[in-house]
Every structure is written in C-alpha cells, then in structure tokens.
Design goal:
The chain has 118 residues and is mainly α. It is built from 3 helices and no strands. It is elongated and about 55 Å long.
Length: 118
C-alpha cells in the first residue's frame, strides 16, 4: 500500500511538471509568434487573436504553477516525500514559472489595450 501511494505521488508530480512545461512552452511560443508578427506586418486582428490566446494560456500557466506550489508544499510536510532537495527545487521552479506567467499575462493585457487603442 505504501508503494502505491509513493507511485501515485510520482505520477502527480510528473503530471504537474508536464502541465507547467506545456503551458510555459506554448506561452513562450505565442510571445515569439507575436514578436515575429510585428516584424512581418501581421494584420491587427491576427495580432489581437495571438494576444487573446496568450492571455488564456498565461492564465492556465499560472493556475498550473499554483497547483505545483501547493503540491510541493504539501509533499514537503509528508515524511514519505521523494527528496527534500528535489522538492525545494521543484518549489523554486514553480515560483519562477508563476512569476513568468504573471509577466506574460500582464504583457498580453497591456499590449491588448495598446493595440485596441486608448
């Protein structure tokens, strides 16, 4: 029974890491796509759509990071956690991802207001 709980915690850790990595890479891809679109003279509606998608993916990125932070804190207090060092590194990574997602979200909101016009 103990081995089953340990495997499920590994599965949850891996699922959270993959979710954050996917959301982060997609958000980064959209930022690069927006920057490329500025140099390639994309239409305003296309740029607006890219910013909307960036906002949604940044929200998902932030929620995934918060889930990772909560999971890391809970696993830190459980004695059967994988390793304290790995758990602390995971917590630091999730905090960095949360800050990055908030910066992507604020960038998409600010640029969305600027592209729509004041």
């Amino acid at each position: 029974m103990n081995e089953k709980n340990r495997n499920s915690s590994h599965l949850l850790f891996n699922l959270t890491k993959n979710m954050v990595a996917l959301a982060g890479l997609f958000s980064l891809f959209l930022v690069l796509f927006f920057i490329t679109g500025n140099f390639q003279n994309f239409q305003d509606s296309t740029q607006s759509m890219i910013l909307s998608a960036l906002g949604i993916s940044s929200i998902f990125f932030a929620i995934s990071s918060v889930i990772g932070i909560v999971e890391s804190i809970v696993m830190f207090f459980i004695k059967e956690a994988v390793s304290v060092r790995g758990n602390i590194l995971f917590l630091i990574l999730m905090i960095i991802c949360l800050v990055l997602s908030i910066s992507f979200l604020s960038m998409s909101l600010i640029l969305g207001v600027l592209t729509e016009g004041l």
